[in-house]
Write a structure and sequence with these properties.
eight-stranded mixed sheet; alpha/beta; 21 strands; seven-stranded parallel sheet
């Protein structure tokens, strides 16, 4: 569209796939805003197909030659969003207006960010998750979950999103049961999150459900040494 800027006179490349819309005055493939970037270094951006990138959005190239900023396919990136250097965005995501991703953020697939949200650098946003409007996300959001708040906290599963994406009643029921065992225990003496996850894995029915296993792995991955842990949650004790 009129006023859009694509690419920059920099070493490296910006590669854009088929059937993308780049809105008025969007800036795609510009130099990053990372102070560690060294002038003259190669930097890269690769965008897939069928993305709608709306007006005044900015998407920056990587901060170093060994990394790359990546956008997948079929994403809706609304007006005035920002995707910083070295981000990895999957496919079929929706970023409402003024969604701001700092450097090195990973967004999987089918995530939905409501408007005016900020994501801290190096955070991971799991597939089929939902971020409420105005949230500040400073830690990982596991798959299938919903967060909101000035310092985003877990608010449960993204139930409406799961239904809209065709998850079965049985899958959702199993995810809810697993979520409650981990984050809403009936006994205050069941230990921490890891202990409760082990309990879910020992449940003969839940452990057979692929979506439950995927959620457990997503939570566990967030506690790896190079990750930021999961968003805070309130340990409701159900009596």
């Amino acid at each position: 569209m009129v006023g859009a800027v694509v690419g920059d006179d920099l070493p490296g490349h910006t590669v854009i796939g088929c059937n993308n819309t780049i809105g008025h005055h969007a800036v795609v493939g510009a130099k990053c805003q990372d102070m560690k970037y060294k002038p003259g270094n190669e930097c890269f951006l690769e965008i897939g197909a069928n993305n709608e990138i709306r007006e005044h959005t900015s998407i920056h190239r990587s901060s170093k030659p060994s990394d790359i900023t990546v956008i997948g396919d079929n994403n809706l990136i609304m007006g005035s969003c920002h995707i910083a250097h070295d981000c990895k965005v999957g496919s079929n995501n929706v970023f409402a207006n003024n969604t701001l991703l700092a450097g090195h953020v990973v967004v999987e697939d089918h995530a939905h960010a409501a408007g005016a949200i900020v994501v801290h650098q190096f955070c991971h946003i799991g597939s089929f998750s939902f971020i409420g409007g105005g949230s500040v996300v400073s830690q990982d959001i596991p798959k299938y979950m919903m967060v909101s708040g000035e310092r985003a906290q877990l608010r449960g599963l993204n139930l409406e999103g799961l239904r809209r994406h065709g998850f079965s009643v049985a899958e959702i029921r199993s995810l809810r049961a697993a979520y409650r065992k981990i984050f809403m225990p009936i006994d205050a003496n069941l230990g921490g999150v890891e202990d409760r996850m082990v309990q879910v894995e020992q449940d003969e029915e839940l452990v057979l459900v692929p979506t439950v296993r995927s959620m457990l792995q997503s939570i566990r991955d967030s506690f790896a040494e190079d990750r930021r842990g999961i968003c805070k949650f309130r340990s409701w004790i159900v009596t």
